[in-house]
Design goal:
This protein has three helices and eight strands, in the order E-E-H-H-E-E-E-H-E-E-E. By secondary structure, the chain is an alpha+beta fold. The protein has a six-stranded mixed β-sheet with strand order 3-2-1-4-5-6. It has a two-stranded antiparallel sheet with strand order 7-8. Helix 1 crosses helix 2. The longest helix has 22 residues. The relative contact order is 0.22. The C terminus is likely disordered.
Length: 138
């Protein structure tokens, strides 16, 4: 079992989602991309845009609970602090993009530095769920 911890954060929401395993981009991005595509479509169809950051966090937790927990829900948590052991941080932006970050020494020494202590992961050009990683967006 892959023990690659990760965080998922949503723009304009202080909650920090932590998964203690299955956090590699090859595992997370296909799930996150499929979910976000449907989420944004439903928001557009319904015309509902209030509380988007809150809805995103709640629904990401539910989706990842089913997709990556493998019947062990202690793997998934929500808090307000960054964990020192994460290998990837996924930032969901309200412009409908996702940025992937990797911790630097700054983050490792002080996880409270958050995304400021990370550098952007540019990927390896692989296709994830039909979308190519290019620069900052998915």
């Amino acid at each position: 079992m892959a023990t690659i911890p990760c965080h998922i954060v949503v723009e304009d929401n202080p909650a920090i989602i932590y998964a203690s395993r299955n956090g590699s981009p090859a595992k997370v991005l296909p799930i996150l991309n499929r979910f976000l595509e449907k989420f944004w479509q439903e928001r557009d169809i319904s015309g509902e845009y209030s509380d988007t950051p809150e809805c995103l966090v709640a629904q990401i937790v539910v989706r990842f609970g089913f997709e990556i927990c493998e019947d062990d829900f202690s793997n998934l948590r929500i808090g307000l602090s960054f964990k020192p052991d994460v290998e990837y941080l996924y930032q969901v932006l309200l412009d409908q993009t996702v940025r992937v970050w990797v911790p630097t020494d700054t983050y490792s020494q002080d996880p409270n530095s958050g995304l400021a202590g990370c550098q952007e992961w540019t990927g390896d050009g692989q296709l994830y769920s039909g979308l190519s990683i290019q620069g900052n967006s998915i």
